[in-house]
Amino acid sequence: MRYCIITYGCQMNEADSGLMAGLLEQAGWSAVASPPEADLVVVNTCAVRQKPEQKLQTLLGQLRAQKAHRPSMVIAITGCIAQGEGERLAQRARHVDLVLGTRCFHHIVEATSRALAGDRPVILTDLSDDPSAIRCGVGEEQAAAPLRALVPIILGCTNFCSYCIVPYVRGEESSRPPGEIAAEIQGLVDRGAREVTLLGQNVLAWGRDLSSRPTFALLLERLDGIEEVWRIRFLTCHPRDVTPELADAVAHLPRVCEHIHLPIQAGTDELLREMNRGYTTDQYRRIVDALRAKVPGIAITTDIMVGFPGESEEDFEQSLALYESISFDAAFTFAYSPRPNTPAAARSDQVPRQVALERLSRLIEAQNRITLERNEREVGAVAEVLVEGPAEKGEGLLAGRTRTNKQVVFPGRHELIGSLVEVRLAEPHLWGFRAEVADGAEGRQRRLPASTRRR
């Protein structure tokens, strides 16, 4: 039997898709590249903005036509839309066989078996399963792990930002025990992983719901002791949960990378208050200043929304000035989308779509300039790159990322894939750098053990 998984949304969704793939392969399924080849098509969905929902509707139309020719095909919708829509989704799209919510996708094998036996649709949207039950046993029978692995450590969110649907479709915060996280990472590195990214809707909230109330910084310290791990990353972080203890961990733990993704979302105190973000612009700026003082060279990236209800032209101009002064290394920028049942969606002062898109264009132009300026300052510097594979474009070029999560493309031998190599940054771009292997760096490279090296 063959399966195909299509993933929309964040890295948590990517991790969830990886978990489903592992479970299916343990059950004897084989992956294929596209739905027409598959006996099972899984669409892992995102509900944070309207665009992924529109993509789903288009795809469902295509899958309906394909299933008309192959009625035995099983179509599964998982993720945030599945959680939020549930029964309505199955009634609206009757060719959908499985609807698995954000804490039920680990039932993919048994649910598919039920569908193949004629029990359709199968709808599971219970939010009561804890992360330990969801992650149990995943990957234990797989021979190899990706070089860069994603490890969810906390599910859910309890911040209830006024524009955000995540708490309603992901549930309350639920942390995995530290020993379980360490064991999963040890298993990943035993099978070839060398960089791990710790994931959560708010990763810094990890531990608050555990009886011993451990801190995220203490978790980083424990994981830094796993010698086979070369790099540890984490995202996403809520600004109000950044502590001096966290800054110390990033500064002093050798495996923790010098990069933090810190969504600001808006640039005036009034907008932040209306968003229920829990910090002021001054507090945010002081957090950034403290991180840069403690960790010289740290890369700080962010999320920025435009067009939130009530945002005036003056608000936008003031926000733009703040972003310029902070000078982010990069930003994920987007226009506000009303989300069902959120307080912001019910407001009467919605910003016209064309106004929001015009502001978004100006924001992107400003951030592109800032990103390029920051990259230009690094030209000539030597950076450590984890070589991930051939570059998408260019004969003989390899690609990887620096510790600050900036993409680098450079000429090099195929044998360097899976290594840590020092390169000299030579040509700045918005996406990162063109570079050259630093003098003598190939002799200093660290490599994967031959038994786990991925080709």
Give the SSE layout.
Blueprint: E1 2-7, H1 11-26, E2 30-31, E3 40-45, H2 50-69, E4 74-79, H3 80-85, H4 87-92, E5 98-100, H5 108-116, E6 122-124, H6 131-135, E7 148-152, E8 154-155, H7 166-170, E9 174-175, H8 178-190, E10 195-199, H9 216-223, E11 231-235, H10 244-252, E12 259-261, H11 269-275, H12 281-294, E13 299-306, H13 313-326, E14 330-335, H14 353-376, E15 382-390, E16 397-402, E17 407-411, E18 420-428, E19 432-437
Helix pairs in contact: 9-10, 13-14
Name some characteristics of this structure.
455 residues; alpha/beta; Rossmann fold; Transcription Regulator spoIIAA; OB fold (Dihydrolipoamide Acetyltransferase, E2P); 6-stranded parallel beta sheet; 5-stranded mixed beta barrel; 34% helix; disordered C terminus
Strand order of the largest sheet: 2-1-3-4-5-6
Question: Residue share in helices?
Answer: 25-40%
Taken as a percent bin, the fraction of beta residues is 15-25%
Number of DSSP helical runs: 14
Tally of extended strands?
19
User: Can you summarize the main beta sheet?
Assistant: 6 strands, parallel
How would you state the average pLDDT, rounded? 93
Distance between the termini: 26 Å
Unreliable runs, pLDDT <50, ≥5 residues?
448-455
- Secondary-structure-based class equals alpha/beta
Task: List the quaternary state of the chains.
Answer: single chain
**CATH class descriptor of the domain at 131-257:** Alpha Beta
Give the radius of gyration: 23 Å
Dominant shape: globular
